[in-house]
Amino acid sequence: VPPSTPICEVPSSAMTGTVVELSCKENEGSPPSTYQWYKNGVALLEKMGTGSVRAVNVTYTMNKKSGTLLFNTVTRNDTGEYFCEASNGIGLSQKCAVKRMQV
């Protein structure tokens, strides 16, 4: 079953230095969907395990299985337009509406 349009939770504003979690979920896809977050139309990279090169400006952890995008400490650089895409390899992937987060 292809995924349905995911529901995205993106705060419209956040205080610098706080923990912010964005979530994305859809329940109809079978097999379960994986989720990809985008900021300003660009796919965000999933953080790799320890030992990999860590980008200095990466302040988030993205979980493709649960659909969460967690910022440990948001900065002004995290302000932008966010949306997520659900896909499970069946049918077309589905995106939620773009939402702006102002930090």
Describe, in plain words, how this protein is organized in 3D.
The chain has 103 residues and is mostly beta strands. The chain has one domain (7-101): Immunoglobulin-like (Sandwich). The protein has no helices and nine strands. The protein has strands at residues 7-9, 20-25, 34-39, 42-43, 60-63, 68-71, 80-87, 94-95, 99-101. The strands form two sheets. Strands 3, 4, 7, 8 and 9 form a five-stranded antiparallel β-sheet that branches. A hairpin with a 4-residue loop joins β5 (60-63) and β6. It is elongated, with a radius of gyration of 14 Å. The chain starts with 6 loop residues before the first strand and ends with a strand. The model is unreliable at 48-52 (pLDDT under 50).
Give me the secondary-structure category. mainly beta
Helix proportion range: under 10%
- Architecture in CATH? Sandwich
- CATH class descriptor: Mainly Beta
* CATH superfamily grouping: Immunoglobulins
What's the CATH topology name? Immunoglobulin-like
What is the typical, i.e. mean, pLDDT? 90
**End-to-end Cα distance:** 37 Å
How many runs of DSSP E, i.e. beta strands? Answer: 9
Task: Report the uncertain regions.
Answer: 48-52
How many H/I helices? 0
Element pattern in H and E: EEEEEEEEE
TL;DR of this structure?
The protein has a single domain, classed as Immunoglobulin-like, CATH 2.60.40.10. Helices cover 0% and strands 37% of the residues.
Quick tags:
103 residues, mainly beta, Immunoglobulin-like, 5-stranded antiparallel β-sheet, 4-stranded antiparallel β-sheet
